[in-house]
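Bit of a strange request maybe. I'm writing a small parser for structure token strings and I need a real example to test against, not something I typed by hand. Could someone generate the tokens for this chain?
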Amino acid sequence: MLMGTPAHADPAQPVLNDVTTPVSSHSSSHAPAPQSRQQYRASREAAGRPLSAVERVALASSNCWTWSASQWKDNVYGGTLIRINGTIGWCQDGYSVWGGTYSWSTYTNFGWSFNSWTNGPTGYYNPAQTRYDTVAQAKFCISWCAGASYLGQDMWGNANGTYGRSNL
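Reply from user aminoacidic:
Good idea to test on real output. This should exercise your parser:
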């Protein structure tokens, strides 16, 4: 039986207690890693999105990058309860961004479950095509959403090679 669970509670239904209650939030990311033109082309083909003729020409004079970031919540003991992981890929030539890709995944533990995406996941370019963004926000639940928690991130890559992220 979980600590703090009333004796009459259904043990199959997790409840919020010191093991299952989020008490701290964290995020991490690393510098983007260069991706070879061949790796980028292969990743697009593996995702079912092969490069167009125009993109193949642009790839010859571009630099491509991939970058991952995570956000998570821990319990009082440091155990991770929920996590959202994002990866973004883009190519840039100093003036514009193209070929943007993204992927998102979730992780749950201690009775928490992924419920739904409440924002995204999506990827989009700004109007001048100098930035590629990917945004996602996830809803996590415990005990049929008796307790809910959200994690979300916005990640971007710019035409000048810079990048960034923010928590939603």
